[in-house]
Amino acid sequence: MSFPIVVGLPIALVLRGRTETETPRERHAEFLKNADIIEAKVVGKGVTETWRLTLKDDTLTHDASFQYVDEREAMKTHPGGTVEVDFVDSYRYNIAGYELAELLGLAHMVPVSVERRWRGKRGALTWWVDDVLMDEATMNEKGLKAPRPKSLERTDLSCACLQRAHPRHRPQPEKPPYREGLENLGHRLQPSVPGLAQNPESQLADAL
Fold first, then answer.
1. What is the pLDDT of residue 123?
2. Is residue 178 part of a domain?
3. Is residue 145 part of a domain?
4. Side-chain half-sphere CA neighbours of 133 within 13 A
5. 43 found inside a domain
6. What per-residue string of b and e applies to 119-135 under the rule 16 or more CB within 10 Å gives b?
7. Which domain range does residue 147 map to?
8. What is the block-wise mean pLDDT of the chain (208 residues), using blocks of 10 residues?
9. DSSP code string of 39-72
10. Which residue from 140, 165, 168, 193 has the highest number of Cβ atoms inside 10 Å of its Cβ?
């Protein structure tokens, strides 16, 4: 008895370098990194000059948002007069947010975001979410409220508490005026006196 030999099976499992085990998120990430950008337009909302790009490869055409903002200021005054200390606004947060969601098993709730260079600028390229009912600006224009506002208020409060717990928000002890000189001396003596640079006050007398 003879049996047919299926020679096409390995080819069926591999298509354009991708396998059937590839997840949609992996496919999205690959697409965002490598697909050709065929169209671009400014979104026109927000303050970070977000662009909506249209990408295309051999099998797919889809949009993505591109943000390249990367600002850091010791103190920033926002419209309305509010002041923020240690202000940071960076496209890297988009990428970090998605990678954190991956680690927490919540990536299905967050659009894929990767780093990519476009028009000489490095930024975050994020999968454009289709079929969105409205954004926050439209919701405010219509006077609509988010569901469970009390729950959201508690979430905001929790985030604020966590932010305040960050070391940068804690009062820092004033550095003694002689500290910098001791540190410099410790660095000069470090090859012959191990550990002096790490704890110069306690070891200076013995070292000399």
1. 97
2. no
3. yes
4. 5
5. yes
6. eeeebbbbbeeeeeeee
7. 133-164
8. 41 40 87 97 86 96 96 88 90 95 92 96 95 84 77 62 58 51 48 46 47
9. EEEE---TTTT-EEEEEE-SS-EEEEEEE--EEE
10. 193
The confidence score (pLDDT) of residue 94 equals 95
Question: Is residue 75 helix, strand or coil?
Answer: strand
At which residue do the structure tokens 């690959």 appear?
A: 30
From 111, 131, 151, the end of a domain falls on 131
Cα–Cα dist 28/139, whole Å:
29
Determine the distance from the C-alpha atom of residue 60 to the mean position of all C-alpha atoms in its chain, rounded to a whole number.
Answer: 25
- CA 48 from centroid of its chain's CA atoms: 15
Measured distance CA(29)–CA(111) in Å, rounded: 10
Give the angle subtended at the CA of 50 by the CAs of 108 and 59, to the nearest 5°: 55
Residue 79 confidence (pLDDT): 82
Token pair for residue 70?
């990367």
pLDDT of residue 145: 79
Would you state the pLDDT for residue 162? 57
Q: In this predicted structure, what is the pLDDT of residue 49?
A: 86
Per-residue pLDDT at 203: 47
Which residue is it, tokens 């103190």?
Answer: 75
My answer on whether 72 and 147 are in the same domain is no
All residues at 6 or more sequence positions from 135 whose CB lies less than 8 Å from its CB, including other chains: 45
